C-alpha cells in the first residue's frame, strides 16, 4: 500500500479537503460521493462524514493508498 504524508499548517483539515489536497480526487463533489459511499476509512474505520476533522497523526485509507496527516 502506498503511503503519502500530508502536512497541514492549521489545527485540522476536513476529510474532503484532504482528499483534494492529496490529489486523490479531482473535485470536492467527487470526494463527497466517495466518502458517502463508504470508500474512505479514517484510522481503520469507514467514515461517511466529509466534514470529519482530521488532525496530525490521523491515517486515511482510500483505494489502496494511505494518507498520514502531519
Give your account of this protein's structure.
- With 70 residues, the protein is α+β, with helices and mostly antiparallel strands.
- It has 2 helices and 7 strands.
- The strands form 2 sheets. The chain has a 5-stranded mixed beta sheet, with no helix packed on it. A two-stranded antiparallel ribbon has the order 2-5.
- Helix 1 (15-21) packs across helix 2.
- The longest helix is centred in the middle third of the chain and has 9 residues, at 28-36.
- The mean pLDDT is 96.
Spell out the key features of this protein.
single chain; 70 residues; alpha+beta; five-stranded mixed sheet; two-stranded antiparallel ribbon; 7 strands; globular
Write the layout of secondary structure elements.
Elements: E1 2-6, E2 13-14, H1 15-21, H2 28-36, E3 40-42, E4 45-46, E5 53-54, E6 59-62, E7 65-69
Parallel strand pairs: 1-7
Antiparallel strand pairs: 2-5, 3-4, 3-6, 6-7
Helix pairs in contact: 1-2
Amino acid at each position: 500500500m502506498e503511503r503519502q504524508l500530508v502536512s497541514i499548517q492549521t489545527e485540522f483539515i476536513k476529510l474532503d479537503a484532504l482528499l483534494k489536497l492529496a490529489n486523490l480526487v479531482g473535485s470536492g463533489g467527487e470526494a463527497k460521493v466517495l466518502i458517502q459511499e463508504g470508500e474512505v476509512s479514517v484510522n481503520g474505520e469507514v467514515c461517511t462524514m466529509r466534514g470529519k476533522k482530521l488532525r496530525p497523526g490521523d491515517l486515511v485509507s482510500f483505494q489502496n493508498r494511505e494518507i498520514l496527516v502531519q
